[in-house]
Design a protein that fits this description.
The chain has five helices and five strands; from the N terminus they run ααααβββαββ. The protein has a five-stranded mixed beta sheet with strand order 1-2-3-5-4. β2 and β3 form a beta hairpin. α1 packs across α5.
Length: 151
């Protein structure tokens, strides 16, 4: 059975699966234990705090946030043997202040994408540097970007 695809459905499905992945939640939970403010918020709101403040259904590359996972989907028209067809280019970005786990998290995100969309194509998991507005010393921050197309 073929999934009905749309920008909204793809984003929702990916965000739901990322937000409910125990390894991703555990990573953020462990990372946030170092700061009293985050520790307090985790205690008060639980995993909802992570889901609402670190996992987003829109591009966050220009935000002040240094730790996030974001999902963006672009709709593109293309031709196939059946004529004109809609394709969806998915971009999942992960950036973390502590770079040591960024590769592990990006591979995990790629596995989630592959489980949800086994027929995906043009898959890439690439490194990317972006300028975070919060960083004052004109430094760029490391990110991993997972890209693939479904349709």
């Amino acid at each position: 059975m073929t999934k009905e695809l749309s920008i909204e459905k793809i984003k929702k499905e990916l965000i739901d699966n990322i937000s409910n992945n125990s390894e991703i939640l555990e990573y953020f939970e462990n990372y946030l234990q170092d700061e009293e403010y985050h520790k307090h918020c985790l205690k008060e709101y639980g995993m909802k705090y992570i889901k609402d403040n670190f996992i987003f259904a829109n591009d966050m590359s220009m935000s002040d946030n240094c730790n996030f996972i974001s999902v963006e989907v672009n709709e593109e028209e293309g031709t196939s043997l059946d004529g004109i067809k809609m394709y969806y280019r998915v971009i999942i970005m992960v950036t973390l202040e502590d770079y040591k786990d960024i590769d592990t998290i990006s591979v995990l995100l790629g596995k989630i994408a592959t489980e949800l969309y086994p027929d995906r194509f043009s898959y890439k998991n690439t490194v990317y540097y972006h300028k975070n507005r919060k960083q004052l010393e004109n430094r760029k921050q490391l990110a991993r970007v997972i890209k693939f197309t479904v349709g």
